[in-house]
Amino acid sequence: MAQRAQKSGYRRTGKREYERTGRRSAYGAMTDGNTARQLDVVTELQKPRRPRELDHTVKKNRDRAIYMNFGYVLFLTLSLMVAGFILIGYIRLQSEITASVKRIASMESTLNSMKVANDEEYSRIESSVDLDEIRRIAITELGMVYPDEDQIVTVPDEGNDYVRQVADIDG
């Protein structure tokens, strides 16, 4: 502890009291207490100054600037242009996709409205047809009759929804 007090320019005099000791300052004059320093301006100006240490980021930026030759700048410019073209193409594709989604939504809306209109028209037609009246007119006015058992021909079902007649059916 005593050595530290001596290095700092203070001397321990009592339990917790310190007093300033005489010590040479950076200007070569002996300072004691609160006396003013005697500055020697001429010798201060004649001393060669040590160049300032450069900051790490300044050194790093200078090193980077050395490597920025024409080829590197050309490479960076071309890379930037390629990236720009790719981004423009990407944005164009995104806008086309958005337009397609809007067009599809519009077409689905039209399809749904057409289905609703078709179902309503089908229901209207179904409700306007009276099958009992059609049967009565067919039997009484047109002379139609139900077929006999020997007139009915059974066609084997092949799993399709319809049957095609390719030849006359003999009964």
TrEMBL record:
Keyword Transmembrane helix set for record: yes
Species of provenance: Candidatus Eisenbergiella merdipullorum
Transmembrane segments: 70-91
Region (Disordered), start-end ranges: 1-30
Protein's UniProt name: Cell division protein FtsL
Keyword Cell division: yes
One GO biological process term: cell division
Entry keywords, A to Z: Cell cycle, Cell division, Membrane, Transmembrane, Transmembrane helix
